Amino acid sequence: MISQCYCTIMTEKDIDTVLSIEKRVFKHPWSREFFHLIVSDMHNCMLTLRTDAGVIGYGGYHLLKNRTSFLSTRHQYDRMIHLINIAIAPQEQHNGFGTFLMNTLIRRARASKAEYCYLEVRPTNENAFSFYRKWGFSIIGIIENYYPHECENALVMGSELYLPSP
Length: 166
Ligand SMILES: CC(C)(COP(=O)(O)OP(=O)(O)OC[C@H]1O[C@@H](n2cnc3c(N)ncnc32)[C@H](O)[C@@H]1OP(=O)(O)O)[C@@H](O)C(=O)NCCC(=O)NCCS
Known about the structure:
Shape: globular
Bound molecules: coenzyme A
Strand order of the largest sheet: 1-2-3-6-7-9-8
């Protein structure tokens, strides 16, 4: 059972805390400047996840309104989202908070009429891969050398957005 938590829209004021989590969970964290950029883009939905203790996670997506089709699904989507980041502070991971945050993001995306979600993940990031699989995401492609520091490819995973919470 997770303790009481809720999501709010990420603002400039959250960036310090978000950065401190980002630096602890990712080997190559996004820069402060990049967070400023994504928070100010009106096509992005960036959320922070909070408990009484403050911000313990964050995540967000970019809403695309370009009609898109995938050979694997044979469907056309008028709106879709690109999940650009999701992270829970290390000490809070595997307690259901990521699920809560993902649920909120997907509900918001559905409210914006998004039909599909895709994302990139490192094949070595087993926790995230297992998290996305649990949400019904499957591998739809590979981007070579997406993470150039380690010469690591990205798995592109996608799912239609009619998912019930796992
Ligand atoms: C991926 C992440 C956001 C998931 O959030 P979370 O709060 O840890 O996830 P939840 O507690 O809701 O767990 C849901 C599922 O995720 C997977 N998972 C999460 N943490 C895991 C761990 N430490 N070990 C194994 N599986 C894990 C499991 O499939 C889990 O289901 P289960 O509870 O039935 O085992 C979080 O682990 C994280 O911040 N990781 C570091 C940042 C990152 O890699 N982000 C993704 C970039 S692509």
